[in-house]
Specification:
The chain has six helices and 17 strands. The protein has helices spanning about 5-10, 120-130, 155-165, 180-195, 195-200, 225-235; strands at about 10-20, 25-30, 30-35, 40, 45, 60, 65, 70-75, 80-85, 90, 100, 135-145, 150-155, 170-175, 205-210, 215-220, 240-245. The chain is elongated.
Length: about 250
């Protein structure tokens, strides 16, 4: 893990809009609510930005300012991004796109021969309801244009296959899961319970999700050392997304 001095020198980049609400410091937003005026969601305080110099910013009746997407580069200290160079209008720059360590795309069909018998939408929904109600379920997903029902469980696969077959005659794959959804939710909760521990390591959690059989944590700024720490602490089922991109280390 980088020491505090080296961590404070590292430069990070992001392309995002900045929202300045009356009486608050400007915030570079990963998410904001598109009300009128917009409201800030998850993001970081941004310092060193001259809002008056930003072209095409929208100023609302109450004084809220929303900029277009900007290219912002600076140092990160937990919830703050301090600019080290002037902001410019964003261009499509893959180097500043949010990065994910791990593969969290939807999985393919889980078995080579799921079958091809027809089934009704009600039968499929009954099977999904059964699977999602089991304490050892891992993940349930549909593939091949919603034709194949896939379900993973941490054990007792033959029993689950029989129960599902009794409900659903259509294409079906039943496979083993590395963890149950209950275990994944417990891991997800730990990320937020451990906020003080993580922030002591320079890691800010902006959010998390369970898109498939793993947990994705969205960190404000996670370089290789932060990713290694998170993986070591929470295990291989965790995937890490860094909103800010490390430009140098």
């Amino acid at each position: 893990m980088p020491n505090g001095e080296r961590r404070s020198r590292r430069r990070w980049g992001v392309q995002a809009s900045v929202l300045a609400e009356p009486g608050k410091e400007p915030k570079v937003c990963r998410v904001f609510r598109m009300s009128r005026p917009p409201k800030s969601g998850s993001g970081l305080t941004v310092r060193g930005l001259d809002l008056d110099s930003v072209p095409d910013a929208t100023v609302y009746d109450n004084g809220t300012v929303l900029t277009p997407r900007l290219r912002l580069v600076g140092t990160n200290d937990l919830w703050t991004l301090t600019l080290t160079e002037p902001a410019t209008l964003a261009a499509d720059d893959p180097a500043l796109s949010e990065s994910t360590v791990g593969d969290w795309s939807l999985p393919d069909t889980a078995c080579p021969d799921p079958g091809d018998e027809p089934a009704t939408a009600d039968q499929r929904q009954d099977a999904i309801t059964y699977a999602e109600g089991q304490p050892d379920v891992g993940y349930v997903w549909l593939t091949e244009h919603q034709r194949v029902l896939n379900a993973s469980f941490t054990g007792d696969l033959e029993r689950h296959r029989r129960e599902l077959r009794a409900l659903y005659p259509g294409p079906l794959c039943v496979v083993e899961a590395a963890a149950s959804i209950a275990d994944l939710r417990s891991l997800q909760r730990s990320l937020h319970v451990d906020q003080d521990v993580l922030e002591a390591r320079g890691i800010v959690v902006l959010g998390s999700s369970i898109p498939r059989g793993s947990v994705v944590v969205i960190a404000a700024a996670a370089g290789p050392e932060e990713v290694d720490f998170l993986k070591e602490r929470y295990g291989p089922l965790l995937m890490v997304t860094s909103w800010l991109r490390l430009l140098e280390d």
